Amino acid sequence: MITKSIPSLLTVGNLFLGVIAIILVFNEKPDTAAMMVLIAMLLDGVDGRVARALNVQSEFGKELDSLSDVISFGVAPAFIMYVVAFQELNPAFAWIVTALFPICGALRLARFNVISSAPGYFIGLPIPAAGGVLATLALFKDDIYVSVLLASTLVLSILMVSTIKYPNFKKVGIPKSAVWVVPIVVVVAVVLGLVFKNDLSKILFVPLLLYALYGLKKNVDGRLKKRNRKRGKLKDHPDDPVQSEHTA
C-alpha cells in the first residue's frame, strides 16, 4: 500500500510547491517562488518514472498529475509574471494575458490525456517546460522590456497548444533498485534551491529556453524542407502543360 502511494505523494509534493510559489510571489519573494516551480518540475519528472519502476501506474495518478501541473506550471508561473511585471499595465489586458497561459496549459494537458503523441515526441510544448521558462524569465524583469515579457508569455501559450513536436525524455527511466535515491535527490535539490535560489533559477532558465526554442526551430526547418520538396516536384512535374506555339 505504501509503495503504491509513493508516486502520488511526489505528485502532491509538486502541487504543494505550486501553491507555495503563488503565496511566495504575493509576499514579494519571486526568486524563491520561481525556485519552487523548478523543484516542482523535478518532482513532476520523477513521479511517473517511479510509478513505472514500481509498476504502480494508474488512471488516478495520471489525472492527479495533470491537475497538479495546471497549478504548478500554469497558474503559479502566470502569477509570478503578473506580480513582477504586469501590474502596472492596463488591468484588462494584463489579466487576459495572465489567464491565457494557464488556459492554454490546461488545453495542452487535456489533449495529452486523450491523444497519443508520436513515439519519442510531445505534441506541443510541455506545460512544465513552459512554466519553468515563464517563472525564471520573470526574474529578468529589470533587464527585459515589459513588451518582450508580454510577447514571451503569449508565445509560450501558443507553443503549448501548437502541433510542434518536442523531444520526449520519458524513456529515460529509473531502475527499481534506484528508487530510494529519489528522496535524496529531491532533498539536495531543495537545499541547493533555497541557498542559491536567485542564481540557480537564472542558470536553469537557459536550458529550459533552449528546449522551447529547439522545437520551434525543428518545426521551421521541417516546413522549409517540405516547401523546398514541393517546389522541386513542381519544377520536375508542372501541373499546367506548357502551351506550344501552334495552340491558340
Automatic annotation (TrEMBL):
Pfam families: CDP-OH_P_transf. It catalyses: a CDP-1,2-diacyl-sn-glycerol + L-serine = a 1,2-diacyl-sn-glycero-3-phospho-L-serine + CMP + H(+). Its main location: membrane. It is a multi-pass membrane protein. It is an enzyme of class 2 (transferase). GO terms for cellular component: endomembrane system; membrane. Signal peptide: none annotated. It comes from the Bacteria. Its EC number is 2.7.8.8. GO terms for biological process: phospholipid biosynthetic process. Residues 227-248 are annotated as: Disordered. It is found in: Endomembrane system. Keywords: Lipid biosynthesis, Lipid metabolism, Membrane, Phospholipid biosynthesis, Phospholipid metabolism, Transferase, Transmembrane, Transmembrane helix. One of its GO terms (molecular function) is CDP-diacylglycerol-serine O-phosphatidyltransferase activity. InterPro entries: CDP-alcohol_PTase-I (IPR050324), CDP-diaglyc--ser_O-PTrfase (IPR004533), CDP-OH_P_trans (IPR000462), CDP-OH_PTrfase_TM_dom (IPR043130), CDP_ALCOHOL_P_TRANSF_CS (IPR048254). The chain crosses the membrane at residues 7-26, 66-86, 92-110, 122-140, 146-166, 178-196. Belongs to the CDP-alcohol phosphatidyltransferase class-I family. This is CDP-diacylglycerol--serine O-phosphatidyltransferase.
